[in-house]
Amino acid sequence: MNPxxxxxxxxxxxxxxxxxxxxxxxxxxxxxxxxxxxxxxAEAGDKPAIExxxxxxxxxxxxxxxxxxxxxxxxxxxxxxxxxxLAMVAREQGKPFEMRQWINRAAELGEEDALELKNNGYDxxxxxxxxxx
Length: 133
Description:
By secondary structure, the chain is mostly helical. It has helices spanning 3-6, 17-29, 31-43, 47-57, 65-75, 80-92, 96-108, 112-119, 124-128.
């Protein structure tokens, strides 16, 4: 994941793009140090930092309670990516009803995989299979 390259796709526009981008670059070379800096910005309420921190934390398997906490915060700011990741957390936890609710939320926010799932009768495995090729 290189957030500096997908920054245009993020739900938010950073107030200080240079600072966020430098933190993302740090994460590529020193994940722990970069996440500590990102956490400081997220704790201060910076929306792009909240979303990024949530998404980075949700990369861990299994997903931690800390990641879910930050995904929920990012969802408050209409993050389609956070809603999608919350759907995948619910899937991971064997909660199909909750997963469908988060898929619907992500689709409402324009998340492409969620939209595809809704049109595909919620066949998660079929949609996710494209990432296994």
